[in-house]
Amino acid sequence: PRRIIIDTDPGQDDAVAILLALASPEEIEVLGITAVAGNVPLTLTARNARIVCELAGRPDIRVFAGCDRPLARPLVTAEHVHGRTGLDGPELPEPRMALEEAHAVDFIVETLRREAPGTVTLCPLGPLTNIATAFRRAPDIAERVAGIVLMGGAYFEVGNVTPAAEFNIHVDPEAADIVFRSGAPITVVPLDVTHRALVTPARNAAFRALGTPVGLAVAQMTEFFERFDKEKYGAEGAPLHDPCVIAYLLRPALFAGRHVNVEIETTSELTLGMTVADWWGVTDRAPNATFLGAVDAEGVFTLLTERLGRL
Ligand code: BDR
Ligand code: CA
């Protein structure tokens, strides 16, 4: 199986991504989950990650708490989307499994130094603070990662937190800048993809029809956080941003994109955190990321529902 570290700020869609990964042990081995501040503060994201592991019946997964604020700015959170706890919707018990004592950044550095080069994939689903801190502290690890498949940014869809920027990149643009300049092979799952992966009423009904605690919880989570996108954009249902990262690992053929240059805006107040992707190749800046732009949403939901049914 592909060995991954999930770096995350759960978040209902992060939760579904974690469930999808844990439901796919033949293809994916989760070495650990590292929590970061983002959708809600760190204490809650570290709590929510453990709640999700327990929901999946995997209290053995190691969960680490990481950075509690962006590198150079105050934390911006998204309770207006995800609710006060970040995981509003289902009634889930407080976690019993313990948080690891080590810091998430130390875990990332140690894992990449210990494992053979090119064997560990990083899957960031929130602001890139933990990953950038690890790269800054241990510059040798960037060339050891097999790849980084991250949810963040946008091209044609532009922004969801400001007119120009997507939430994960906007919250910590300095961190994103470090990661995009790191030289590690990056695949970006932007809003252009995730705004096409919507939980329609029929897809929600399919989760519920699984008749399991996981199916019910996922239906309730997406019902909660779709309210924001429905009101704001008239969307048909909740966009499953973060699960697309795991779906890409499982079925890359469901996605298409371009290898392009991506730079992060870190100074402009107007466009802070914008992912400036040279989609049309109008500069001679070297490509540093594969920017996905198309998705077979029906394929993603068929895969997701089938996998959730295994938990
Ligand atoms: C991203 O921001 C968060 O609210 C979601 O969990 C996702 O990672 C989408 O912009
Ligand atoms: Ca997230």
Structural key phrases:
311 residues, alpha/beta, eight-stranded mixed beta sheet, two-stranded antiparallel sheet, 12 helices, 12 strands, 18% strand, globular, binds beta-D-ribofuranose, binds calcium ion, Ribo_hydro-like, purine nucleosidase activity, IUNH, I/U_nuclsd_hydro_CS, uridine nucleosidase activity
Describe this structure in words.
- The protein contains 12 helices and 12 strands.
- The chain has 311 residues and is an alpha/beta fold.
- Strand 4 (120-124), helix 5 and strand 5 form a beta-alpha-beta unit.
- Bound molecules: beta-D-ribofuranose and calcium ion.
- Residues 9, 11, 14, 39, 125-126, 242 line the site of calcium ion.
- The site of beta-D-ribofuranose (BDR) has 15 residues, from helix 1 and helix 6.
Q: What structural category arises from helix and sheet content?
A: alpha/beta
pLDDT under 50 segments (min length 5)? none
Total helix count? 12
Strand content: 15-25%
Measured as a percent range, the helix fraction is: 25-40%
Task: Determine the mean pLDDT.
Answer: 96
Main beta sheet: 8 strands, mixed
Give the ligands present: beta-D-ribofuranose, calcium ion
Number of extended strands = 12
Would you list the SSEs in sequence order as H and E?
A: EHEHEHHEHEHHEHEHHEHEEEEH
Distance between the termini: 18 Å
Based on CA atoms alone, the radius of gyration comes out at: 18 Å
